[in-house]
Request: fold
Amino acid sequence: MKNFISTAEWSQSELQMILDHANQFKQGASSDCLNGKSVALLFFNPSLRTRTSFELGAWQMGGHAVVLEPGKNAWPIEFEAGTIMDGNAEEHVAEVAQVLSRYVDMICIRAFPKFENWQEDRLDKAIHSFAKYASVPVINMETITHPCQELANMQAIQSLIGKPQNKKYLLTWTYHPKPLNTAVANSSLLISTKFGMDVTLLCPNADYHLDPRYMEAASKQAQENGGSFNVTYDIEEAYSGADIVYAKSWGALPYFGNWQAEKTIRDQYKHFIVDEKKMALTNNGQFSHCLPLRRNIKATDGVLDSDYCFAIDEAENRLHVQKAIMAKLIG
Ligand code: CP
Reply:
């Protein structure tokens, strides 16, 4: 039984097969491979795209999705092993995962970090606990990575520029008034280096480096796949000649639990907004973002409304890639 928790556990050719199937779905192919099957979607955090596309994707393939929000319409869940459960949680993931496995054929989890202690959050306990106790495949709907978003991004890139090998991919940090999850940024590095792109990470300073696990994976994958990976704090250098510009905001890891101190730093970097002037430095570059996005904070109206913005296409692709992932795991 295989899970879909991180693309790091999947080869480029396995991912390409999922992307090829997603392209068939996009071109109108149908499948009833979930006929009589069901999937549990557990949301510990809000969602628009992920919930809609998973629920519809399951239904379009003949299956049924049950949406649960632990702590809201379902019991709060404990993830610590061996703990005395005298807090808010009413049941342990050991029971939740085993019970759901008796009812459904796949379990999908969205569980963001708590943003208090990165050393704790980086363990990604929620999804790994489900994977440990479940006897059905587990899919990551965004924890500290967002692999479904990765595939939607790569599907769009391939349709826009063909083979991504050695095309210049820029992941730029952008300003946002709140510290956000690093998941999409981690994922952006994983998928672009997996497909041999020449990848640049642009961020304000070393505090905004991503977790070493993902920086090291990016370097290793770039080497394995004939691409490259470098980090810069220089905006002009980063945008120059880029084929793809991918934007995301995230909180600085050394400031987890100390966000007031980080805010005074982050507020100095509002000029990292993606605008037409920066995009003019690129190689007729295409722009995207995972959404949701605050207009004229992360990117200007001019960029979002341009012909080179493919964020809506990427969002559509979520539906196609997730159908392909579910079809693969239910296989
Ligand atoms: N990109 C993304 O996952 O969107 P939602 O948070 O709306 O699901």
User: Anything to note?
Assistant: The two ends are 10 Å apart (CA to CA). The first helix runs from residue 12 to 26. The domain at 149-314 is CATH 3.40.50.1370 (Rossmann fold).
